Amino acid sequence: MTVRAAVAGASGYAGGEVLRLLLQHPGVEIGALTAGSNAGQRLGALQPHLLPLADRVLAATTAEVLAGHDVVFLALPHGQSAAVAEQLGDGVLVVDMGADFRLADAADWERFYGSPHAGTWPYGLPELPGARAGLAGARRVAVPGCYPTAVSLALAPAYAARLAEPEAVVVAASGTSGAGKAAKPHLLGSEVMGSMSPYGVGGLHRHTPEMIQNLSAAAGERVTVSFTPTLAPMPRGILATSSAKARPGVDAERLREVYEKAYADEPFVHLLPEGQWPATGAVHGSNTAQLQVAYDEAAGRIVVISAIDNLTKGTAGGAVQSMNLALGLPETSGLPATGIAP
Amino acid sequence: MTVRAAVAGASGYAGGEVLRLLLQHPGVEIGALTAGSNAGQRLGALQPHLLPLADRVLAATTAEVLAGHDVVFLALPHGQSAAVAEQLGDGVLVVDMGADFRLADAADWERFYGSPHAGTWPYGLPELPGARAGLAGARRVAVPGCYPTAVSLALAPAYAARLAEPEAVVVAASGTSGAGKAAKPHLLGSEVMGSMSPYGVGGLHRHTPEMIQNLSAAAGERVTVSFTPTLAPMPRGILATSSAKARPGVDAERLREVYEKAYADEPFVHLLPEGQWPATGAVHGSNTAQLQVAYDEAAGRIVVISAIDNLTKGTAGGAVQSMNLALGLPETSGLPATGIAP
Amino acid sequence: MTVRAAVAGASGYAGGEVLRLLLQHPGVEIGALTAGSNAGQRLGALQPHLLPLADRVLAATTAEVLAGHDVVFLALPHGQSAAVAEQLGDGVLVVDMGADFRLADAADWERFYGSPHAGTWPYGLPELPGARAGLAGARRVAVPGCYPTAVSLALAPAYAARLAEPEAVVVAASGTSGAGKAAKPHLLGSEVMGSMSPYGVGGLHRHTPEMIQNLSAAAGERVTVSFTPTLAPMPRGILATSSAKARPGVDAERLREVYEKAYADEPFVHLLPEGQWPATGAVHGSNTAQLQVAYDEAAGRIVVISAIDNLTKGTAGGAVQSMNLALGLPETSGLPATGIAP
Amino acid sequence: MTVRAAVAGASGYAGGEVLRLLLQHPGVEIGALTAGSNAGQRLGALQPHLLPLADRVLAATTAEVLAGHDVVFLALPHGQSAAVAEQLGDGVLVVDMGADFRLADAADWERFYGSPHAGTWPYGLPELPGARAGLAGARRVAVPGCYPTAVSLALAPAYAARLAEPEAVVVAASGTSGAGKAAKPHLLGSEVMGSMSPYGVGGLHRHTPEMIQNLSAAAGERVTVSFTPTLAPMPRGILATSSAKARPGVDAERLREVYEKAYADEPFVHLLPEGQWPATGAVHGSNTAQLQVAYDEAAGRIVVISAIDNLTKGTAGGAVQSMNLALGLPETSGLPATGIAP
């Protein structure tokens, strides 16, 4: 069986990455490619690294063009996915790489996104407790945000095992592709090279409620998250430092044991051997999340470091992994566990 | 009056930066330049950016060569400063850019550095409460570590004003020059470009006790610090995200007020206007620390962002500022408040 | 005497750099700052590295605002300088960092810029034969393009000494700030980091006729230039590789001798010792051009490498140096010969 | 049939890259992995991106360990390949990624490498005229140098079609991985980020005679090459600007026609559509060489721009492509035509 896939938003970074992965997926044939303002252009002019698709011309994003595929990946600006999905019907698997269907709480959505809540779809982070089952046979998938992917994988096991107090502190550095391909002065190479800067400080980043949702579910109680994202001078990658106060009785051995058990069978989450630390450079282009844990006895805190490629495991890789599960394909098909280095 | 300055360790990054600043200092004449394994070489071959000193030849680091100056800057490996300082006598101001004399607690020193404690010198961070007075007329100065500079400036006002609980969480990103000029595989350009990675996770970094010392002094009680340093793909700069739980009654207005007051008269600490965030790219080559504060109501935490140039305010700028105070020169002499951007 | 300076286009990279230099110029007081679409904003929001000017508010660029200064620096889009200059009159020194008045040949101008030729002003590259004299007392100065600065300094001595055939081949790499601060997709950090790319290949770059003009003047005959500019993943700096076939009788010794003599007394052009090669990292933020020469006997070519900071010696430093000469100030005032490294 | 492959030098950049490609090769099984000073270590500690091989332990490089495979890839320091190859015998395909067997001329070898010439093996650049035939069934392959790959692909068609005079001028920028993984001060991240610098100027680089050999073969006459390599602040990629004086009668149309024809059937050499230029960022991790040609009428020169990934098409990709041809496997097996961007 070959799955026919369409990609809406094929000229952006998320769209380009899903195409890179689909090109190496043995069970997928690439169908329609659409774009907004770039409709009518050759893909080769916009995504010159996708050589096998260079001569494809981008169509305008309409339900007509996207219909008739087995799966449609949406890489659209926030707020546009619902209208497209409705027109596609249940015969098509829709994998949304945008934020629209990630949050269960409508009030959270409205506070952070400022628009009416569109609904909630099965959440495409199969490594979370219970999530894999919810994806089997799904017709709609909400792919997690890149930061929530890195942070939820980092802290969910600690919360599920009741190791940590429900007040998490997260500081994460992201490559610039997380901010998309729209040209803005602060994202110019001249501005970002050689500089680190924060944004959305003080609980303002839209990924905060998504982290809270995931960690609270794992903990079985409300978890607060102090989240500070920073922009790093690199195109790809997220390095997240997530910590929380340890509960009484926790020590380094118990901590490691919990994480080893949590991810022992996961193909894409890799707890590094003791003494080795994650680096975004080691997961460049791969669907792997690298993790390492530490127990800081003097400060009484659990510290978890996670590294992912924001465009692969953090977006398009998570999308393909979810598609595989929804369609009953092998979960790892088309998904590299090997990165490109240096 | 012209001050004659010698620099020991002139071929490294700290030594090079102190020379860059001294070259623009109106009251300083540059005397002896010494090095370890690079002794005998032209400075121009090792520090080609210091054109006016290109033809200077590096001497071996000995007390004889360093004697006879008004001030000697030491940029030596840990553990070597005491012996040199002893031989120089009290007639010479010795400004140590190494760690040897920063910590007051001998047990802390021994635990983190693994060697006998050499003593404690006046601490060269004049913006800390009481520190400026201790530097006036000093004959010995211990220049703070780069991370402790960024973090102490960030959190000392909150602790001094009793705004925060005594458990700080700090995640900081540093440019690679903080790791020095010795060639190590993990510091190769091929390894660091495009990658973020942590090190010294879990309370192991040697700057941790120095932060604890400074923040505890400001707080008047023992403060714990969970500190995670990360290596960023840039040559210079530290961006520190420092947070702590807010004490009851704290709000955004009160927080800002405390910081405005704390740094109103400081020439080198700049609280940005509301809505603007620090970036290391804005303090590249300058002695300025940029700060911004936020109160995250949902998480109940104070978050302070600070950006410095690790080699300027974080090392050599702090050293020159301390020299100015010790010798009664204008505090800002030779110290740029303007960075180089982009 | 204090010179009062205005800067038109203060929110861009060239404008920001001229302000950085003027802030350290002992004989200059900074007057009006103007901008186009950024008029009305605080400079601190746009150029956060220029801390001493942070609270200045940008005015709209009009002759009224710029009048009444001793010198006006223009950092305007091509084609806008003539109108401003006309209204300022001869009482004001106008230093144009744009291209409008660089070319003597109207046909060249029209072919490469597509608009009517505005005229020709004294050319602000004092190191070219005869140029310094033309700048003394000038009321108008055309600052050279960044690439022509690097390339003319590299090859003019060889042509003036009749060492080279009149067919030059130049390949140069520039940092991204050369492309300005306007947000364009191909200049995003995500696009430029980790990538090298050419542009304007095949003789199309607008700096080509300017190089031809300068080298032909030095040679006393028409020189052709094959010029290929490339965009490098760094914010600043130009590294130019300029070569030409050697005339009979040239050897390495003769070549070096000519360059040593040509630049022996120049404060800002530095021929490196044999065996040492220029690097843009060694001239970051300085007004120095580093040069090295080689004679490739097997290929029969003279190869000259030059490194400058495109924003300093290549734009704003050249502008301030020209101002100094025009106003009879010391040529090196306000101009750092020391770079920032690493 | 599954081919068993061993890699000698598996801890370096070339060795790591060949393993990355072999991991995705459907017809290859990875056998012994050896190293020099890193023997005894887990591969995961040295090449953390190669997750599927993380637990492999490196053996010492000996003929005993390497024997018994169908193919052995050598990524050894210059001068060590011959001894290993001799002991392996003709039953094993040996693909040498070092320089030892690239040059046909013993005098060239001795002048540039300073050691006795070991011999000449079939040259692993199948896109050169006649080369593919020489690789079919070969038992020994010399993989070209990275620069000669980029430059030979760029200029061979022009020389083969007699379009260009036999004096080529080449300036190329390489990412730092081309310099290997041995820690040297000038390759530190602090030194290379934000800086461009040349090396081996004036005909001294060891890849020069290899370019001359290839271009002379294509031209049917002796071609001289003026080659200037530069180090760019990026981990991977080569961008080469290669030019030569056009012969009478050449124009843009004829030039394009020649290149279109030369590479029409090549799976890994891609002449871009007119108006689009190569970028190393578009071939990151892929085995594709991107090319574009221009005819500069004013300068009378043909200019060819080529972009490759120095570790893929420039080293390990070329090695795998040669292995495929030597063993009669599909030429493109295991070789990505798609890059990773941004």
From TrEMBL, chains A, B, C, D:
Keywords noted in UniProt: Amino-acid biosynthesis, Arginine biosynthesis, Cytoplasm, NADP, Oxidoreductase
GO MF annotations, alphabetized: N-acetyl-gamma-glutamyl-phosphate reductase activity; NAD binding; NADP+ binding
GO cellular component: cytoplasm
Major subcellular location class: cytoplasm
Reactions it catalyzes: N-acetyl-L-glutamate 5-semialdehyde + phosphate + NADP(+) = N-acetyl-L-glutamyl 5-phosphate + NADPH + H(+)
Subcellular location: Cytoplasm
Keyword Ribosomal protein in record: no
Role: Catalyzes the NADPH-dependent reduction of N-acetyl-5-glutamyl phosphate to yield N-acetyl-L-glutamate 5-semialdehyde.
Protein name: N-acetyl-gamma-glutamyl-phosphate reductase
Organism: Streptomyces gougerotii
